[in-house]
Design goal:
With about 325 residues, the protein is α/β, with parallel strands linked by helices. It is built from nine helices and 13 strands. About 35% of the residues lie in helices and about 15% in strands.
Length: about 325
């Protein structure tokens, strides 16, 4: 019998890539989306007719239970959240409700359903926050945004339910990962879209915040494979997923502008105080040794390849 999976946040970048991956594995895929007057299926239009969309909301536990009942999944991937770090300062309460408490509601819905279901929680490197060296599964957390704090609650409640109720719960602590499907409000996509527009004569300048922040960037489809591998193990555990290489926003600009033949991008880029965060994370780098040794996972797409794909797509 083929497995079935329920993915929250199906219309996001990770949700759509994970659905693509699971379909290649023969899964029956259910994608949860919020009911709205107009569907935002930019990333999933190619999946219509291939997966089943179900209506649910991480702020409503009854709707989550109904989604589980309708899909009867072997695996649940909780990728839904208010995931824009910058926005979390503007809507901290909503971020906590969706990104943090939403995990608890899903775990309670699974427990109420009564069937053994493997659960994946999308944790994040933003939970580390302040750090100066490579982070692994044992590194101390120090989140620097309402988003990071909410994700940390989701991470710990996932662990707590695993230990309290013997549930197969895992958390993937994923470092930054991007693709052509990343939302336009994220700095990486803002850069690649801006570079494309400058190349096509549609825009003169890209306005950004801190150019010195360093991130460990990988390619989203590679990371979705790691999510799946975590749920195929005999025992549940948490894993850091990262490339082990860091780049600054400036280096991301170097790579993006290089693909349109521009070496000096300084006249095309400006800084705006509006995009500066109250408390920024200046450095994030991950040590994925455990994922590589236990899961047999490793990143397949280089930083330059990822940036090139995004610029070409835009």
């Amino acid at each position: 019998m083929n497995k079935s999976a329920l993915i929250t946040g199906i219309n996001g970048m990770d949700g759509s890539h994970l659905a693509d991956f699971l379909l290649t594995k023969g899964y029956k895929v259910y994608g949860m989306e919020r009911r709205s007057s107009s569907k935002n299926r930019t990333n999933t239009s190619h999946l219509e007719g291939k997966i089943t969309f179900v209506n649910g909301d991480l702020t409503d536990q009854n709707s989550l239970f109904r989604c589980i009942k309708e899909s009867d999944p072997d695996e649940i991937y909780n990728l839904g959240s208010q995931s824009f770090v910058g926005e979390s300062w503007n809507t901290p309460e909503q971020t906590g409700d969706v990104t943090g408490m939403g995990v608890l509601r899903m775990l309670e819905a699974i427990r109420e359903y009564g069937k053994p279901i493997k659960f994946y929680q999308a944790s994040t490197s933003e939970m580390f926050g302040k750090m100066e060296k490579f982070a692994n599964e044992n590194t101390k957390f120090h989140p620097r945004s309402p988003y990071g704090v909410a994700k940390l609650y989701g991470h710990w409640i996932t662990t707590n339910y695993r230990e309290s109720y013997d549930m197969f719960n895992v958390s993937g602590i994923l470092f930054n990962h991007e693709s052509e499907r990343r939302g336009i409000e994220f700095v990486t996509r803002k850069i690649t879209d801006g570079v494309a527009r400058i190349h096509l004569g549609l825009q003169d300048k890209i306005m950004l915040g801190n150019l010195d922040a360093h991130r460990d960037w990988g390619y989203a489809p590679d990371y979705c494979e790691a999510m799946w591998l975590m749920l195929q193990q005999e025992n549940p555990d948490d894993y850091v997923v990262a490339t082990g290489n860091t780049h600054s926003i400036g280096e991301f600009l170097d790579a993006a502008f290089h693909h349109i033949g521009v070496k000096d991008w300084t006249k095309y880029v400006g800084q705006d105080e509006r995009f500066m965060r109250p408390a920024d994370v200046y450095y994030l780098a991950g040590d994925s040794t455990k994922a590589q040794e236990v899961l047999g996972w490793k990143p397949k797409t280089s930083f330059d390849e990822m940036v090139y794909k995004m610029v070409q797509n835009d």
